[in-house]
Amino acid sequence: MQQAELRYDSGAYQVLKPGHYVVCAVSGRQIMLEDLRYWSAELQEAYADAVIATRRHEERQGQPEEPT
Fold first, then answer.
1. d(CA 9, CA 29)
2. What pTM was computed for the model?
3. What secondary structure, in 3-state letters, does 15-29 show?
4. For the chain, first and last CA: distance in Å?
5. Confidence of residue 63 (pLDDT cuts 50, 70, 90)
6. Residue pair 31/24 in contact by the 8 Å Cβ criterion
7. 23 closest CA partner among 14, 15, 13, 33
8. Strand ranges (DSSP E) for 1-68?
9. Is 63 helix (H, G, I), strand (E, B) or coil?
10. Can you say whether the dihedral through the CA atoms of 45, 46, 48, 50 is positive or negative?
């Protein structure tokens, strides 16, 4: 299996490099593309589940925005 490269947008993502999975930015777990439901367009990160996505969002609240 090969890792995909994606560009995350609000509500959708664009495949930049075809593959079978992406890696969760927090847990390091592989997420099959057909199971990918949670990501951040702002941070360009994928998350394995809703709990991890929520935790990451909460960690980011109150921190200064990263320059783009």
1. 21
2. 0.85
3. EEECCCEEEECCCCC
4. 32
5. low
6. yes
7. 33
8. 5-9, 12-17, 21-23, 30-32, 38-40, 45-47
9. coil
10. positive
- Looking at this protein, which amino acid is placed at residue 33? L
Structure tokens at 42: 């702002």
Look up residue 31 and give its amino acid.
I
Partners of residue 21 on adjacent β-strands: 3, 32
Whole-angstrom distance, CA of residue 43 vs CA of residue 1: 25
What residues does each domain of the chain span? 5-60
22-47: pLDDT as tens digits: 999 999 999 999 999 999 999 999 99
Of 14, 32, 15, residue with least CA distance to 23? 32
Both structure tokens of 67: 């320059």
